[in-house]
UniProtKB/TrEMBL annotation:
Residues 37-115 form the DM2 domain. It comes from Helianthus annuus. This is Putative SWIB/MDM2 domain superfamily protein. It comes from the Eukaryota. PANTHER family: SWI/SNF-RELATED MATRIX-ASSOCIATED ACTIN-DEPENDENT REGULATOR OF CHROMATIN SUBFAMILY D. GO terms for cellular component: nucleus. InterPro entries: SWIB_domain (IPR019835), SWIB_MDM2_dom_sf (IPR036885), SWIB_MDM2_domain (IPR003121).
Length: 116
């Protein structure tokens, strides 16, 4: 009987701790109000702005749009999926390179975002 009581008491404590942690995280996110880091919308270079059709965008959204373009136009190298074969439009944002590795994309795009 003592075990059952202590076990039930443990559940109450765990429920209280879980509820408090969730409430605190939600309150902290609500205080911020604005996205930060890679989710923050920032001005982009004219060449990336022309490619995306917007003058301001978050880094995550820009990379997402570039990957959508790559997949829509079948620009991945069929024999090596880690390589992107750049067409004329991609060359404008990838420094005129004919092909880039998929790990290079974030590095090449970073120059198009203004530092604030």
């Amino acid at each position: 009987m003592a075990w059952a009581m202590s076990r039930q008491g443990h559940r109450v404590l765990m429920a209280a701790a879980t509820g408090t942690g969730t409430a605190t995280a939600t309150a902290t996110a609500a205080k911020r109000g604005r996205p930060a880091g890679i989710l923050k919308v920032v001005p982009v270079s004219p060449s990336l702005g022309e490619f995306l059709g917007v003058s301001q965008v978050s880094r995550t959204e820009a990379v997402k749009k570039v990957w959508e373009y790559i997949k829509q136009n079948n620009l991945q190298n069929p024999s090596n999926k880690k390589q992107i074969l750049c067409d004329a439009k991609l060359k404008t944002i990838f420094n005129g390179k004919d092909q880039v590795g998929f790990l290079e994309i974030a590095k090449l795009m970073s120059q198009h975002f203004t530092k604030s």
